[in-house]
Amino acid sequence: MVKENAPALLRRELSSPKWKPQTIAMSGVTDPYQPVERRLKLTRRCLEVLAEFRNPVGIVTKNDLVTRDIDLLAELARHNAATLMVSITTLDAKLAGKMEPRTAMPAARLRAITELTKAGIPAGVFVAPVIPGLTDHELSAIAKAAAEAGAQFAGMVPVRLPLSVGELFTRWLEQNFPERKTKVLAQIRGMRGGKLSDSQFGKRRGGEGALAKQMA
User: In the list 11, 32, 135, 145, which could disulfide-bond 43, CB 3.0-4.6 Å?
Assistant: First the structure.
């Protein structure tokens, strides 16, 4: 499903006298730079509207296609109205291919951070999701590589598996890492109150317990 009129709807909203300037997040759920964006350019057209209105935007992406829009993002950054988080879950290209298909390889994401920061755009690294027993040992290495690439800040979120996502992830573990399945799921439950997900405010993003504290 594609919302082809998103830029027009955004313009209408920002033009309303009821609009109160606030940072717009792109995107907390789906990546705004999915492969189809190369053709549709919906994200770019939305950025054109945001740049015109100088409305702040925060972007999280796993794809280096974001560098295509450096001209618009740099213009927004000139008015302190842009922040970028490049999500890097692992530095292992083979694991990334299994875990995050159709996204940029880790090296390309690091290059994106470099290009963004060189253009004067505040950019950092977002390690999400961190999967205990699979990628948590890479936290320090990812932070170091991102800092060397120019990242100015960092954040992370331990994996959370709400509803059907838990079943999907469990099947993925069975197919790709059967020998780690029991350990990974047990450690996730240890951070999520015995469940694979915890939606409680204050716990949802960071988790709880010794492992969650160690990650932080």
Answer: 32
Whether residues 99 and 179 share a domain: the answer is no
In this prediction the pTM is: 0.93
Give a yes or no: residue 1 inside a domain.
no
Give the domain range for residue 70: 6-158
Closest by CA position to 191, among listed 130, 117, 144, 100: 130
For residues 109 and 14, membership in a common domain is answered with: yes
pLDDT in tens, 31-67: 999 999 999 999 999 999 999 999 999 999 999 999 9
